[in-house]
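If your schedule permits, I should be very grateful for your opinion on a structural question. Please examine both parts with care and let me know of anything in them that strikes you as inconsistent. The record follows directly beneath this note:
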Amino acid sequence: MKIIGLIVFAYLVGSFPSALIVGRLARGIDIRRHGSGNMGATNVFRVLGARWGLVVAVLDMVKGFLPAFFFVRWGVENSTIDPLYQQIAYGLGAVLGHVFTVFGGFRGGKGVLTGLGVLLALMPLEAGIAVLVFVLIFAAFRIVSLGSLVSAAALCAFVIIEKYFLARPVRQELVLTCLLLFVLVLVTHRSNIERLMAGAEPRFRKSKGRPD
């Protein structure tokens, strides 16, 4: 029961509406009514500027990192459940909370940064490589969604190569977690994928820090 309670708590942590609160504090606006309407860091960057976008980006990552890294210390005592399973459950709970936030009508962000926070807690080296891939793709194309999709795919490919071709001690559960997060990224980026295929996905441009 304690572990179930912590999963629910992780969901609530993930549900913390970072973008919504920052929009209210920074400009007195509802971020859902501006830009793309998404409650994520990218939309905050576009609408409110880099400073506030960075704040939301960090908060969204922390929402995933904290449950996956710290909650296991509370839940593992006297439990027969593998600590890694607990970490994965808490991390996924946080990601689902971000995507389906209870504080925003169950419509939140796309889960990329919160998922990154989870992976930083579970497998920091691989998460760092995914960040590097994102930076390279974004620098080349200036399209956030493309960077997110390619880096998520690259992460899955890397952990599969590590485990099955390089015989590194990567647990099967971590491979499956990466694949699950990749599927979630694909689902939350459905409209972006359609625009990418049509050549209509907007490139990222520096915001003037004003709402649309």
Notes: The longest helix spans residues 50-70.
